[in-house]
Amino acid sequence: MKGIVFTEFLELVEEKFGLEVVDKIITQSNLPSKGAYTAVGTYAFSEMLSLLNHLSNHTNISIDDLLLVYAEHFFKVIVDSYPEIIKSYKDPLEMLASIENHIHLEVLKIYPDAELPTFTIIDKTEDSLNMIYKSSRSMHYFGLGLMNKTFDHFKASATITMEKIKENGTEVKFSIIKN
């Protein structure tokens, strides 16, 4: 997993819960990296899981809810760091439908060894989108949060439902209906 995911996560934790909590979850997690991340480095997903678990235990906030909040933070990072990608879209469904064939291609130009989930479009209309998320990691709530922020960014709204295809969350169907 790319280091930017870790550095931004720890920045969010510090912002929301304080530096002491950052130090606490890093110490409790007993990380091979010792919590010293660089944005372009690559780190084991198990480190993120450990950080999330310890933060969840400390805050009594579910990991799914933490991932939703983190996605909101991360979307802002994307908008601020790569505005040209976002500005090339006029509609949230259009943007979400192009994750695989445009956005991920741009990410891979910046982070060539990034391990990204795949999004397969099942069907798309002017007001709806159905797609399958597949990943070796169960981060579908992070994806849901990014989708929610996409609609917020375009000042639009939608009903987004998730249906786990695999119980562990590594394969999920997202059904999006624009309101």
UniProtKB/TrEMBL annotation:
What's a Gene Ontology MF term here?
heme binding
Pfam families assigned to the protein according to its UniProt record, in alphabetical order: HNOB
Database matches in InterPro entries: H-NOX_domain_sf, Heme_NO-bd, NO_sig/Golgi_transp_ligand-bd
The UniProt record lists the Heme NO-binding domain at 2-161
Among SUPFAM superfamilies, the record links this protein to: Ligand-binding domain in the NO signalling and Golgi transport
The name this protein carries in UniProt is Guanylate cyclase
Instruction: Tell me which species this is from.
Output: Patiriisocius marinistellae
Q: Provide the gene name from the record.
A: hnoX
